[in-house]
Structure to design on (133 residues):
């Protein structure tokens, strides 16, 4: 886990624990995200929060899995090696290639220009002339 992200989570937990002490609330397992009842947040709880946000923002469909796709896509578009991305999300590089590797238009355009620079018609014409001699 990124140290900055870890620090933010731990600061949030510390703040929350201090607030809850005033209410004689306990969090014996030390969970970072808990419900008002002090239980760890489960999938249904997270889904309900997402549904409420979607209702408020008029988003027709969204799942937590979209966040995973977004994370992987951002990493790949920033040239993070596939093996590193796979390790971060607990997948294999093969799965990343099959499921997550999207084609990025800017990369396609860039590759097209690079190809034009490397292989140009005049170089082929010159090689034809040399072979004719």
């Amino acid at each position: 886990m990124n140290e900055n992200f870890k620090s933010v989570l731990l600061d949030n937990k510390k703040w929350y624990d201090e607030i809850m002490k005033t209410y004689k609330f306990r969090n014996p397992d030390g969970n970072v995200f808990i419900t008002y009842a002090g239980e760890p947040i489960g999938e249904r709880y997270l889904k309900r929060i997402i549904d409420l946000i979607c209702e408020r923002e008029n988003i027709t469909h969204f799942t937590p899995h979209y966040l995973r796709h977004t994370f992987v896509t951002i990493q790949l578009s920033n040239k993070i090696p596939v093996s590193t991305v796979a390790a971060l999300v607990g997948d294999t590089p093969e799965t990343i290639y099959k499921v997550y590797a999207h084609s990025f238009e800017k990369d396609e355009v860039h590759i097209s220009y690079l190809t034009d620079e490397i292989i140009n018609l005049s170089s082929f014409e010159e090689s034809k002339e040399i072979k004719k001699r």
